[in-house]
Amino acid sequence: MSYKAAISLTLLAALPAVATAMTEDDLQESFYPYRNAVPQVDGLSAGTVVNSSNADQFKARLDPAMFNFVKNGDYSIKVGETTSFDLHESYVNATRANMGGVTLGAEPGQISGADAGRPFPQEPSASDPRAGEKLAWNYKYGYNWGDSAAISPFYWKFRSMDSGKVERTLKFNFHFLNYTHRTQQEPTPAITPNPSNLFRGIYVQVLEPFDVKNTQLLIHRYEDDAKRDNAYLYLGFQRRVRRLSSGQVTDAFLGSDIMIEDFEGYNGRISDMKWTYKGTRTMLMPFYNHNEQALDSETHSDDDGYQVVSFTGKGGCFPDISWQLRKVYEVEATPIDPNHPISKRIHYMDAQTFTIPRTITFDRKGDMWKVWTIGQAHPDYHLPSNKGTGVSIDDAFSMIDIQAQHCTTGQFKGQVNPALSPASKFTVQNLRASGR
After folding, report:
1. Which of 163, 229, 284, 401 is the most exposed place for a label (fewest CB within 10 A)?
2. What values do phi and psi take at 36, rounded to 5?
3. 22, 114, 198, 329, 392 from 134: Cα distances, Å
4. What is the pLDDT of residues 163-176, one digit of tens each?
5. pLDDT of residue 298
6. If 0-12 CB within 10 Å is exposed, 13-18 middle and 19+ buried, where does residue 14 land?
7. Measured between alpha carbons, how far is 117 from 45 in angstroms, rounded to an integer?
8. Torsion of Cα atoms, 426 then 178 then 392 then 114, to 10°
9. Taking residues 159-163, what's their average pLDDT?
10. Sign of the CA dihedral running 279, 284, 289, 294
11. Does pLDDT of 11 surpass 70?
12. Is the peptide bond between 319 and the residue preceding it cis, with omega within 30 degrees of 0?
């Protein structure tokens, strides 16, 4: 690239992004990419098993970390039929109402006109220097867990990848609440009063084991992306609330392989990262129907008969699920802070739901470090209460530390039920009251 061209791109990136005309076809392609046809790859159809014997044949359909796992015989992927995960019509309609009126500001983290719905439903362009940032906004304002939801209960297991030994099991409740950008659960479009102008709240409570029981985490994310999250931790054995510093969101959470910043794929501000769109791919991704999988009938079965996903593969570090060929956006996120413990993440965003089911994290030296999988279950083949919600249900996770040969796995009971996550739960006062 010439010096003049480089300067031109730099100046272009510094300018506010102008709203572009979008059509109903753009919206249909964004929300219903499989309405006319599903992805086709020779030799790769429902029922195929991708393993060490044929991994090379399908290398282009796997991210680099998963290719290595499969090639080494650590995991085999069962291919399922590609299905449409239609988001709730209220979210689609909100996107339609704002279509073409959303713009980025001059600085990363600035946006206007994004009242509700998907901010940028048009296809990303490699010639757009801010395409990655737009995709990040689509994720942040996505329909992830809808307007509110709970994972109750939620089991985390710490495992040695070499021996398969389960070293520790934690039982949680996780709760999510959107204060603004609401489209389906009343009140819409926002919860009032909201004097702090919050966008989202996350509340976590540890139920077991005894030594960390009643440890609680509360995260307040502001509508203004320039404002840092407020995060509070209540330690049961100390019986007091303390504020978390910004650096603590990148520490190992409760001794696991997971940072607070890793939650849901990425749990931070848009302005904390430089976002780069790397291309659109057809890839195998962990999307499936929960009720059709090999479920864990022994360790975590609820009174209502609900059973969590089983785990398999090396060390029991991989969800025992089927994977689909799907349209995926590859996005690189590089920390702005030079003291951040990672050099970059590569996110594989699902183009229909804008969940982040696959992420590869690289250490400060640039070596592959951790690999994140979040299984996505179709709401109509899950709990009866989730049917028709249009929420792509986070259903199982695996965070593998490749360098340490260790993993943390998660088994979910995700419930899209607003009664489980009232606004009163997302307060510092609730931390103290619940910890008594």
Report:
1. 163
2. -105, -30
3. 15, 11, 21, 12, 21
4. 999 999 999 999 99
5. 73
6. exposed
7. 33
8. -160
9. 95
10. negative
11. no
12. no
